[in-house]
Known about the structure:
Oligomer: homodimer
Order of helices and strands of chain A: EEEHEHEEEEHEHHEHHEEEHHHH
CATH topology of chain A: UDP-N-acetylmuramoyl-L-alanine:D-glutamate ligase
Radius of gyration of chain A: 18 Å
Number of strands of chain A: 13
Strand content of chain A: 25-35%
Organism (chains A, B): Chlorobium limicola
GO molecular function, one term (chains A, B): kinase activity
Helix content of chain A: 25-40%
Pfam family, one (chains A, B): PfkB
InterPro entries (chains A, B): Carboh/pur_kinase_PfkB_CS (IPR002173), PfkB_dom (IPR011611), Ribokinase-like (IPR029056)
Structural class of chain A: alpha/beta
Largest sheet of chain A: 9 strands, mixed
Mean pLDDT of chain A: 95
Largest interface: A-B, 35 and 35 residues
Keywords (chains A, B): Kinase, Transferase
Amino acid sequence: MSILVVGSLAFDDIETPFGSSPDTLGGSSTYIALSASYFTSDINMVGVVGSDFTDEHFGLLHSRNINTNGIQKVEDGKTFRWAGRYHYDMNTRDTLDTQLNVFADFDPHVPAEYRSSEIVCLGNIDPELQIKVLDQITAPKMVICDTMNFWIEGKPEELKKTLERVDIFIINDSEARILSGDPNLVKSARIIRAMGPKILIIKKGEHGALLFTDNGIFAAPAYPLESIYDPTGAGDTFAGGFIGHLTRCGTITDLELRKGVLYGSAMASFCVEKFGTERLNGLDLLEIEDRYQSFLDLSRIDG
Amino acid sequence: MSILVVGSLAFDDIETPFGSSPDTLGGSSTYIALSASYFTSDINMVGVVGSDFTDEHFGLLHSRNINTNGIQKVEDGKTFRWAGRYHYDMNTRDTLDTQLNVFADFDPHVPAEYRSSEIVCLGNIDPELQIKVLDQITAPKMVICDTMNFWIEGKPEELKKTLERVDIFIINDSEARILSGDPNLVKSARIIRAMGPKILIIKKGEHGALLFTDNGIFAAPAYPLESIYDPTGAGDTFAGGFIGHLTRCGTITDLELRKGVLYGSAMASFCVEKFGTERLNGLDLLEIEDRYQSFLDLSRIDG
């Protein structure tokens, strides 16, 4: 099965207590696609970039077998830019600058050959654009969606229309509380799942993630990392690993969903070890399997 | 094996968004002993109360087969009192009032029949008193210790002397960061374990707990409760269930430590369902086993 990934491509200027990394390749769809590329080889991206997005950047995606035919390049424009600074504890950050650039007029066009995509992954973009993408897909089997508080607060009705068509929704804990209006995550999950997505993942950053399905709740731990250099993209990397695993195994059972959450967590734990997407470029399958095993060991109770 | 529990007995005035509960029986050793009483029947308390601690209160402890001969009753004094108010999210609280009363002059005296205790549980009290207790014990096999930021910041040297004699240290995440001086919990754990306790548990409130031993890290999830009425005593209740399980099985392997963390978590999840110790009074072993099983299910990955 092929995965269609729609979201942002960006250049980030990142500052953390450990250093800074200017002009770093980023964007939600970049992290999602790179992460998923370790699980499946049929990944198609739809997005928009400017002339500053060079062959070298495309080459990096191609080296991971990611199809970029759906990425529009606006020759007289500049790629979306984000600048942020992380605090000492790495859990909070300030956005220093956002330049939408070519992303301001992004009108997602899904190329004909992608319209039969079975798995559609809607990265964190305007929910109106998310719907535009879905309208172009013939018969999606699985729609995964991410969002952020900006859209929850700014376009709640449009987001709710999107959610009616979403199978798996990935959100973080503070966003879940805002969207549901309830501080309790169990109640939040019930309220949000009633909006459409039968499968809900609530990410809790350094505290792991919760998976809610009809069959109950799964609590995935976070990997207790000694060194976190840059949390940028960790959530998207999680989504990519999660979707990649589900695509690879081709079945959505509770067991595979749980494993998917751990694979997503494993990929996110790699992501934060270096700046930007750096760590996601040169992974090998064995170290991913090892990290997954470490996640299993973290919560193992053997009789 | 018998457990010696030393700590505070108190009356708490508790306010939460769900209501208030004045004159509620509390104190670290009360929660610890009540929780442990579901796992072992040989629990001895050492502490101090005033004349307002009536036969009814002693009766409640006796009904759980807890031996109270080591509790000094000061007839012309009043029991330690604490008043606090929890915020909307239940994760933060303000202390409204603290009256040490008879606790101000507490000089723990371990009765002769308790001095051969093999398991000593030092609740959150002045580290100088914790050492005084240890000096009275002949040959403890396992010393468990809790503390709080008040002592970490106020008596760091005394606390470090205590820790040299502690086998299992239980602390929350913010306290671990203060004590170690490092925001990263993995690094914090290494620093704290070098102070003495080979086994360290870092509690993360609604995010579960981490167990650090020579053999690695165990991450226990928190039970995703829909209704949390009162978090007071949850940490002490955790400690009681943890110690109770270890005492019951009589062996300290990594497996039993992990199970102990889940039993402690299960007991804490009951504690917060009602005000004060109310929920800890009428539990039965079957519902504890059921809750423990729910914790196992929360992180289960079956092949």
